[in-house]
Amino acid sequence: MGASGFVPGWFAHRRLARGRRGSVYLARSEADGRWAVLRVLRLPPGTDLQDAVAQARHRAAWRDPGLVGAHDVAPTCVGDLAVVVDLAEGGTLAGLRADRGHLLPGELVTVLFPLARTLRRLLARGQAYDDLREGTVLFTRVGRPVLGDAVGVLVQRWWRETQGLRPGPDQAEARLVRRIGALAAAALPGAPRRQAWPLVDLARHCAAPQPRDRPSLDEVARALTVAATPLPLYPVDTEDNAGRVTRRIPERLLMPPEPTLSRPRRRGVRRSRSREQ
Predict the structure, then answer these.
(1) CA 114 to chain centre
(2) Residue 189, exposed/middle/buried by CB under 10 A (0-12, 13-18, 19+)?
(3) Domain range for 51
(4) What is the dihedral of CA 16, 68, 122, 80, to 10 degrees?
(5) Same domain flag for 81 and 102
(6) Is 244 within a domain?
(7) Quick one: how far is CA 10 from the chain centroid?
(8) Strand 10-19 and strand 70-75: pairing?
(9) Boundary-marking domain end, from 85, 117, 135
(10) What number is the average pLDDT over the span 49-69?
């Protein structure tokens, strides 16, 4: 499908996903040929399209290392909202866990610490990222975690606020903390128990039934800094594995086994005691 129905200057190469809130396309710039992601958001009935575009452009102008960068926003010919964002070539946390089953504690710290700081910065702007889950945690080519579809999530939140659905800042932070705990709890099963215990304990506190008993995002970030030593995530740089994050296998598991010092058995020499007698 051409760019005329979406954002001028971008060609929708193929559709990657389709859901309740809209569709996602792999797009290419007609000016310089670079690849990006085109998100077409289906707005709720009765939404003022021009207001939605203005809100989206305002949020797309934000530059934060923890958010996928946005390049352009435009209304479509059918009244939807189209947003062009960077292509996160390292895949998603959901894809990583599907490949690996679990993350090492240090790798989980590498993922969750910057996310907690990004969420805190958004709250300081009066915004809450309401769609925190494994599928929206993306990785850049160098393995840096970023939040995907920030413009779309924040525009959806703006629309709910126009309908009077605005949770208080403390309530919004408590929800985000609970979701961080859920990410940790899902990624840890199978990890070394002794190393993972501080993170398991943190996930338990994040899931406290009463919001007032959960830590703040700042407290979560501080707890992560002492829970484990961060380990890097390495993205795959081959065509057959493009868009995924490599399995980081400890080097000791790749080394050949050390020779044992046990006495070798001599075959064909042993005789039964009855024959010896």
Answers:
(1) 11
(2) exposed
(3) 3-85
(4) -40
(5) no
(6) no
(7) 26
(8) unpaired
(9) 85
(10) 85
For residues 34 and 72, is the Cβ–Cβ distance under 8 A?
no
19 DSSP β-pair partners: 22
Rounded mean pLDDT of the chain?
A: 78
**Statement to judge: residues 100 and 218 lie in one domain:** yes
Per the structure block, which two tokens stand in for 114?
């910057």
Is residue 99 packed enough to be buried (19+ CB in 10 Å), middle (13-18) or exposed (0-12)? middle
Question: Could you tell me what percent of the chain has a pLDDT over 90?
Answer: 30
> Cβ of 48: how many Cβ atoms within 10 Å?
12
Overall domain count for the chain: 2
164 band by pLDDT with thresholds 50, 70 and 90: low
Q: Give this prediction's pTM.
A: 0.76
How far is residue 199's CA from residue 231's CA, in Å, rounded to a whole number?
14
More confident residue, 111 or 193: 111
CA distance 56 to 240: 35
What's the pLDDT at 265?
45
Beta bridge partner(s), residue 18: 23
Query: Between vectors from CA 276 to CA 272 and to CA 277, what angle results, nearest 5°?
Result: 115
DSSP string, 111-164: HHHHHHHHHHHHHHTT---TT-SGGGEEE-TT--EEESSHHHHHHHHHHHHHTT
8-46 pLDDT, tens digit per residue, is 888 888 888 887 778 889 999 888 988 999 988 888 777
40 φ/ψ angles, rounded to the nearest 5 degrees: -105, 110
Q: Does 111 share its domain with 215?
A: yes
Query: 269 in a domain, yes or no?
Result: no
CATH number at residue 63: 3.30.200.20
Q: 8: which 2 tokens? A: 């001028």
As beta bridge partners, residue 26 has 14, 37
Helices and strands of the chain, counted as H and E runs: 9, 7
